[in-house]
Write a structure and sequence with these properties.
mainly alpha, 48% helix
Amino acid sequence: MGNKVSMFALAAVIACMAALGGAAMAQEKKEAKKEVKLGIEAVKMKNTELFPDIPAPAAKYSEPAGYKGARDNGFKIFTDVNIGNCAACHCADGAKGCGNIGPSLVKYKKELGVDRSHEWTYQKVADARVDNADTVMPPTITTGVLKPEEVADVVAYLESLK
């Protein structure tokens, strides 16, 4: 009789664990749906709502005097998820897993960059809010995500894209 009670107790414990696991999975699905909704809602939000921790106002930047950007480091910054992660939103030559939130930068110099100065591109990467207060592109220098030299490197990479 003792073995039957033990087996019954074990079965009850397993059933409870399965039920709790199912509840946890249901909660995870709810959270995932919530995140997707936030993604859709984010498109409709103003910059100050999206990035409340970003210092205001937008800041004007210039490339560091005497510094020539390094294209290879710019590519690394553009594609590395731990540094700039520009490829999360933009596609560019050589980048894998490109996003489509921002414009494609494939053939940047030939297509988008043809009418844009070096200074304009630097400012756009440094703090795009100067030109567009409602942009979803986060300011990189203002937030300390990138140093001025790293922005110059990204610009060198972009301008190398024929």
